[in-house]
Write a structure and sequence with these properties.
The chain has two helices and no strands. With 104 residues, it is mainly α.
């Protein structure tokens, strides 16, 4: 009789372990799906913010735009900005003849 009760308890433990493992796999799979959905929502929000920033920096929408805002707009739309300076420095005025206008 002891052998049968021991086999019965071992069988119950085995069934509990199998169903517990299946339940745990379902929980992990649901968490993975929820994580992917959250990641997609975050990417969509970032895309919307980027588009709003581009529209805000668009030169057609903002006539009195500063140079840095224009360069920021160009970097967002073209992924790079090329700036060329001719002369001794890029400041307005008489150039680098005055030490306060020169670069280090």
């Amino acid at each position: 009789m002891k052998k049968y009760s021991l086999l019965f308890m071992a069988g119950i433990c085995l069934v509990v372990l199998v169903f517990g493992h299946l339940h745990w796999e379902n929980i992990i799979q649901a968490a993975g799906i929820e994580g992917k959905k959250a990641e997609e929502r975050i990417k969509e929000k970032e895309k919307e913010k980027r588009e709003a920033l581009i529209q805000g920096l668009k030169p057609e929408n903002n006539k009195q735009q500063s140079l840095i805002d224009y360069l920021h707009y160009k970097s967002l739309t073209q992924e790079k900005v090329i700036v060329s300076l001719i002369g001794s420095n890029g400041t307005s005025g008489t150039g680098a003849s005055n030490s306060s206008n020169s670069w280090a």
